[in-house]
Amino acid sequence: MGELLYETVSEDLILKIKTGKLGQDARLSERKLSEAYGVSRTVIRDALKVLNQKGYLTIRPGKGHYVKLPDETYFCENVGNIITESSIPMDQLVEARELIECSVTSLIIERVTDEDIEELTELHSQMARVLDDRETYGRLDAAFHVRLMRCCKNTMMIFFIQTLNDAINRNVILWERTIRENAQMEHGEMIKTLRTKDEGLLSKYIHQHIDCIKYHKY
Questions:
Q1: pLDDT over 50 at 217, yes or no
Q2: Pick from 52, 64, 61: which is nearest to 17 by CA?
C-alpha cells in the first residue's frame, strides 16, 4: 500500500511539473507535501526519491528539495547508458545515425547561421592541431557532429544525434592517423557546403564520412 501511495504522489508531482504548476526551482517541503497529500513524510521522501531519479529534483544541502526541469544532457546520458548496456548491434546504431544526420541536411542548409559556421570552423581548427592525439581528436569529432546537427535548430534531432554519437567508440574507429586525416578533410568539405548552401554535397559528405564507420570491424 505504501508503495502505491508514493507512486501516486510522485506521478502527481511530475504532472504538476510538466504542466507548469510547479516551476523551475520551486521548493518542495516534506511537511507541506505531507499535509497536502494526507500521507506520512516517509511516503513523501520516497516520492521525492522517484523525482530525483527521473531528473525532476535537485537537493541543495541545508536548504531542501527543489524542482529541476530535466535538460538535454540528462536525457542524453540516461538514454545513452541504456543503449550502451543493450544488445543493439553497433552497425544498427551507425545506420540510425546516418539516417538521422542525412535526413536533416535540408534544415541545416536552411537554418545555418554565420555564428554556426564560425564555431564549426573553430572546432575544425582545434581538431587539426590534435591529429596525433587520438582521444582528444575523438572527443572533438563527436562535438563537431553534434554542433553540425545544432544548425538544424531542432531539439529532438539534436538529442538523437548526440545520444547515438556518444554510443560510438571513436577510439576504435579513429585508431589510425590516416583515418583521422580523411575525417578532417571531410569535416572541412562539410563546412564549405554550409557556406555555399549546397544540400546535395552536404548529404554526400555525411554519407561518405559515416561509410568509414559503417564498414569498420568492431
A1: no
A2: 52
